[in-house]
Write a structure and sequence with these properties.
The complex is a heterodimer. By secondary structure, chain A is an alpha/beta fold. In chain A, about 50% of the residues lie in helices and about 15% in strands. In chain A, strands 4-3-6-1-2-5 form a six-stranded antiparallel β-sheet, with no helix packed on it. Chain A starts with a helix and ends in a 6-residue tail after the last strand. The longest helix of chain B is centred in the first third of the chain and has 29 residues. Chain B folds into two domains: about 30 residues; about 80 residues, no CATH class. Chain B is mainly α. Chain B is built from five helices and no strands. Classes of the chains: A alpha/beta, B mainly alpha. The interface between A and B is large, with 56 and 33 residues.
């Protein structure tokens, strides 16, 4: 309940900040004679676009307090949707002005001499480019790090361009308080940007973690064991949480990826943390396999609200697909170490038996705790002791224990599986509040 | 589970922001000014008139430079006022104020 209230408070603050300049402009209303509905609609759309852009960094800046009620992945998804909305409002801003005064191609020229208009046109084009390359990154086959760099530079250009445009061109900006407000939003964006890109890396620069072990555990997956710097280990994390692993020469590197912790959350003497990383691209396919014991890397975490420590349940149903088994491993190991006796049912889906990782470890855990594992293989062979096909409603019905509606459900896997589970589980009578998911496939 | 709701929530939020934008436009555009606050054209600063009627498409500095470059100040003034009478949405009186503003006859006279 407290988390729900906090979530509502954060969302209320976000909505307030998005609409504040609009309300303030309405209040000061410095225009002596009416300029026409479409001109004012253009102004309103411009204000909304600007504030949405300025607040984008607050969504992905890894603020624990704000992320806790929603989950960082949900904030990232919201960031994505609001980026699209901001670009749409920018287009409306230009479109409404065109309705009012007749469209001129000259307006869209970012190299025109008038600074106010040039910066506005540049912000509009940058917004189209930033949203476009985010939606099409995979098709364009850009490296994640390249995309991230251009995304950040583009975002900076949009907010600064829009701010200069509003200050130089906007009729409302002749009121000092409005100018102060516009500058304040731009300043807030720069502050968040600096916190994320400068202060945070600086804070961890002198405290790298070290690779203790890096071994392949099957299906092109590496288990990376990391040791914290002396006196700088985590004071605990929750099973199912993740951390950003940063490789490269410094923590300013763009090579940073969110990876789920696979080890037990119960404190260990050496503070080690394990991360299971499957080859899914340049970084996980080339950089991770090359890591050797003793190599430094930086860890920003723990983060995330996909954890079984926050919801009471009579038992747990874990549904994993592919490398989605990683948070489930952490949950199972933690339950074992805590000697938790509640029943756990694990559905673990993969393409075939060769694609299962941690199978020996899971079978060993089943002997140590109240755990039943159901393997679901798309290409099951006789003797695999597994369900054939995918995790469907029928498969779930066959294995779910009778009181399953009082269990907590955790789902992590490919998007298609997550979508299917979010549809099927409520149909099976599982309360929506008992279904927990995590996805990071944003771009 | 929050993810399946996020897309719908984003559409609702965007729709509400669009509604707020249109409401803003309607309120600002239709807000009747108090009678005593309605300024006569003479009382409205000329640069406000330019911002209101011209600035969306034209840049003041460039227009001023262009008009002042012509040798016949009075002829230029007359021609421009005539042109503006058939261009844009400003009243005839406002057209005169805007041209005076651009030619620099507002405020201190140029030698």
């Amino acid at each position: 309940m407290a988390l729900l209230l906090r979530g509502m408070a954060w969302f209320g603050l976000y909505s307030f900040l998005v609409l504040l300049p609009l309300a303030f402009a309405l209040w000061v209303d410095p225009i002596a004679t009416p300029r026409g509905f479409w001109t004012e609609a253009a102004t309103g759309a411009g204000f909304v676009a600007f504030t949405l852009c300025a607040l984008e960094f607050s969504l992905v800046g890894r603020f624990r307090a704000a992320a806790e009620p929603f989950g960082i992945d949900a904030l990232m998804l919201w960031h994505r949707w609001m980026g699209i909305a901001a670009a749409a409002f920018l287009a409306l801003h230009a479109g409404f002005l065109a309705i009012r005064s007749g469209a001129t191609v000259q307006w869209l020229d970012p190299f025109q001499r008038d600074v106010g208009r040039a910066t506005g046109a540049a912000a509009l084009w940058l917004a189209v480019a930033v949203v476009g390359n985010s939606l099409l990154r995979r098709r364009l086959r850009w490296r994640y790090e390249t995309w991230q760099l251009l995304h950040g530079i583009g975002a900076l250009g949009i907010v600064l361009g829009a701010a200069v445009h509003a200050l130089a061109q906007g009729s409302y900006s002749r009121v000092p308080a409005v100018r102060f407000l516009v500058a304040g939003y731009a300043g807030l964006f720069l502050l968040l940007f600096a916190r994320y890109r400068v202060w945070r890396p600086l804070r961890i620069w002198g405290h790298p973690w070290r690779v203790v072990e890096n071994r392949e555990v099957g299906d092109d997956t590496f288990l990376l064991s990391l040791e914290p710097p002396p006196g700088r280990g985590w004071h605990g994390f929750e099973p199912g949480q993740f951390a950003w692993l940063i490789t490269g020469r410094t923590p300013f590197s763009l090579e940073q990826h969110p990876i789920t912790i696979a080890s037990s959350a119960e404190p260990s003497s050496d503070g080690r943390a394990d991360f299971a990383i499957k080859n899914l691209g340049d970084w996980s396919g080339q950089v991770v396999p090359a890591l050797r014991p003793g190599d430094p890397l930086w860890v920003d975490g723990p983060h995330g609200s996909f954890t079984l420590d926050r919801e009471p349940g009579q038992g747990f149903v874990l549904i994993a697909g592919g490398i989605g088994i990683s948070p489930m491993c952490s949950m199972l190991l933690t339950l074992r170490d805590r000697e938790d006796r509640r029943p756990v049912l694990l559905f673990y889906a993969a393409a075939d038996a060769g694609a299962l990782v941690f199978r020996d470890e899971l079978d060993a855990l089943a002997a140590e705790m109240d755990l039943h594992v159901v393997y679901v293989l798309e290409q099951a062979e006789p003797g695999d002791d597994a369900e054939s096909g995918r995790v469907t409603e029928d498969v779930l019905r066959r294995h779910l224990p009778r009181p399953y509606r009082r269990f907590q459900f955790y789902v992590c896997g490919p998007p298609s599986m997550m979508d299917a589970m979010e549809r099927i589980l409520p149909e099976l009578g599982v309360p929506r509040g008992s279904i927990h998911t995590e996805r990071f496939d944003m771009v | 589970m929050v993810h399946s709701l996020l897309g719908r929530a984003a559409w609702v939020f965007g729709g509400l922001a669009a509604a707020a934008t249109l409401a803003f436009a309607a309120l600002v555009d239709r807000a009747p000014a108090p009678p005593q606050a309605v300024p006569a054209v003479r009382e409205v600063p000329a640069d406000d008139l330019f911002a209101q009627h011209c600035a969306l498409c034209h840049e003041a500095g460039a227009m001023t430079a262009s008009l002042r470059a012509k040798p016949d100040r009075e002829g230029t003034r007359r021609e421009t006022v005539d042109f503006l009478h058939g261009h844009g949405e400003a009243s005839d009186e406002e057209d005169v104020r805007i041209v005076e503003f651009l030619l620099g006859t507002q405020g201190p006279q140029t030698p």
